[in-house]
């Protein structure tokens, strides 16, 4: 007997709100270098542990009148907003994927569609947390991005064991590498490993690595509650073009090895035959497709960051944005993440227009706009394939 839709909807919304409650823990603790596992949730003002009945998503915040039960300190509306937003996003995505005709080629939930849905709510949930942290502190914790990247790599690798490979490729449900993009991804991975080894060994210096005096100044700026944590109040005693040059040097092995691998797999006959046979394994093609999506997502933002830094003489975009789009690319694929990057400025321009209209001047970081761009690409996936990417497929 089929489960009525309303039961699914209530369950998914409640599940999303519970995940939102956990995201609130991530948003508060992760940028402060606190464990997200222990100790149990407590009031930041008085330190009293929050009882389970005071930790029910949405309801407890309303019942307690937006205050701590013990010390009556106000509880930020952010907790309620994140829980509600996460619940609505999880429910909305489920309805769009499985209860509307917007994505007619999406497999049924029980036929493998659950994997696509799971990967996408992992991405969106993580991006909600990353955006909230970015809005408050102008940083994006890289561990959030790495978590999504790993999920994308695993999901794309396992996808062919859950959904027919022809369906995945035909409808672009998960990233899948061709012989060329697979070679580029494999070579780039080797180059990345070499760059990381050079970085760890000290032969390469990290960009924007402050000395001790700069660390003290940055800590003071972070502690200044009147600063609103804006980047222009942070210590900027850097030669920005030199820092961009360091990043180019870090990227050179990645670019070089990707091109060498592409050449070997295309022009050297024994290598080409072996490589084409190797890529026939759907799991390999899925893994390398996700990996290529990661490199493209990182690459497009990193290129804008470097060119912008050279052009304007100051840091353009953050490395957190680089990893954010890399994580998105690992889940939605290279072409979709590029389109998401170019959609994001429209949200930025809309925000700027509203600020001008209402005469507000507060800046916000770019992470939330990038996240919105990814969300649009996800829900308009089939329209985009039909009208924009048909040449590729």
Number of separate structural domains: 2
- Fraction in helix: 55-70%
Structural class: mainly alpha
- Beta fraction: under 5%
Shape type? globular
Looking at the chains present, what oligomeric state does this protein adopt? single chain
Note the gap between the termini: 39 Å
Summarize the biggest pleated sheet.
Answer: none
Could you write a compact summary of the structure shown?
The protein has 2 domains: 1-100, no CATH class; 141-212 and 228-393, no CATH class. It contains 15 helices and no strands.
What does this structure look like?
This protein has helices spanning 5-29, 59-63, 77-98, 113-137, 142-162, 165-171, 179-201, 212-223, 240-267, 269-278, 282-312, 319-332, 334-358, 367-379, 381-387. The chain has two domains: 1-100, no CATH class; 141-212 and 228-393, no CATH class. It is globular, with a radius of gyration of 23 Å. It contains 15 helices and no strands. With 393 residues, it is mainly α.
Topology, element by element:
Blueprint: H1 5-29, H2 59-63, H3 77-98, H4 113-137, H5 142-162, H6 165-171, H7 179-201, H8 212-223, H9 240-267, H10 269-278, H11 282-312, H12 319-332, H13 334-358, H14 367-379, H15 381-387
Question: Main traits of this protein?
Answer:
393 residues; mainly alpha; 0% strand; globular
